[in-house]
Amino acid sequence: MAVIRGRLGERLAWAALALSLTAAATLGVQRGARGQSRPPAAATDVPRLPSPVIYPPERIALRMDHALPAHAELRCVRCHRGAGLSERVEDHLIPREDSCQPCHAEDLDREAPDRATRCATCHVGFGERDEQLVPASEFPTARLRFSHRTHVENGMRCLTCHEGVGQVGVATRANLPTMRQCFECHGPPGFAAEASAPAQCETCHLTRPDGMLRTRFPEGELNPPDWLFSARHDHEWLVRHRWVGADQGSLCAECHQESDCVDCHDGRVRPRRVHPGDYLTTHVAQARRDQPRCTSCHETSRFCTECHSRLGLSTMAAPAVRATSRYHPPNAVWVRGPVLHGLEARRAMNACASCHAERDCVQCHGALGIGAGVSPHPPGFAASCLGALSGNARACRTCHGDLEALRMRCGG
């Protein structure tokens, strides 16, 4: 009994796993379908921290409590000397010792017997190893073009860009302006209510000698945020980029040249990475849902039939490999009765062509002497068949053979 129960439990576990995998695959297809619908012009998910590519990681070995009442009463330029006149990001605006001297003269007394304790008030780690060395701080230069002077002259306050700095103990790169903050003034028309400053990317971002934006840095590559016209280059970008490119071509041209497009769109190279790794098992649902998108890269009569024949799913497959499982419903409803295959053929002929050749249709629908003589046309079609013959004579020849005789029957 225990053995039977164990085997039953094992089977139930495998069944539960199979159901979970099936549900996950279905949800993946549904999410992919939703992700490939036309995205909105802007999203609301705004990153909280500035990009580490724009503001490289820093090393701060200092203590400076901005929220301390004595500090909160001071103007920013009291400690950050020259900030209002700075025109380059390379300018060093971190307070130096002479900025602290007027208020912290006692702490800066190098002759005091307890100077190690005093120095440690501001310098993190000072004297921890009995070394009278000041731990170094590192503040890498931002990968931007920025003029404090221009912003001050236009009436900008420090806290407008350095939001929340007055409530933190130590100001870090988290208190530096994000691109979303900059877009409150530098956004394109209609993006922000007060967007009146220059909106060209090169206003703030570094450029290469050829004038294109510089996107590669030691910390990584620049990647547009998702809220910027859904232009983030994520796992769905290969599918979504067509809509962004159509609506925001000038934005793409800031970083890309036509040669970048030709790498994929020259008609010879079809990158496989456009599909996820498990696409072979889930492509059926998407192919039935969005056939035109498949045919933008794949030729149904060749690409689909080659694979389906090799796997034995097609009537063109060799008898030795032809699958024994049924793909279509029973003949009672698929061929006879409601004739569902006719409805499906009129709805999505490309789907039929992925497994069937013309000869499969002609076997039944060819005229007597060519096929079984089963007409696929609706009642009364003979009254308008001359128009169909004039529009596509090849289709008529496939089943009827003699076009002259057919033209006479149609009243031509």
What does this structure look like?
The chain has 412 residues and is mainly alpha-helical. Among the domains are: 68 residues, no CATH class; 47 residues, no CATH class. It is 40% helix and 1% strand. The protein has 21 helices and 2 strands. It has a two-stranded antiparallel ribbon. A hairpin with a 2-residue loop joins strand 1 and strand 2. Helix 19 packs across helix 20. The N terminus is likely disordered.
- What would the average pLDDT be, to the nearest integer? 80
Going across the biggest sheet, name each strand in turn. Answer: 1-2
Query: What share of the residues lie within helices?
Result: 40-55%
Structural class: mainly alpha
The SSE order reads HHHHHHHHEEHHHHHHHHHHHHH
Rg result: 35 Å
Kindly state the number of beta strands: 2
Q: Give the CA-CA distance, first to last residue.
A: 81 Å
> What characterizes the major β-sheet?
2 strands, antiparallel
Approximately what portion of the residues adopt beta-strand conformation? under 5%
Summarize the structure.
The chain is about 40% helix and about 0% strand. The chain has helices at about 1-35, 70, 75-80, 95-100, 115-120, 150-155, 160, 180-185, 235-245, 250, 260-265, 280-290, 290-295, 300-310, 330-335, 340-345, 350-355, 360-365, 385-390, 395-400, 405-410; strands at about 215, 220. It starts with a helix and ends with a helix.
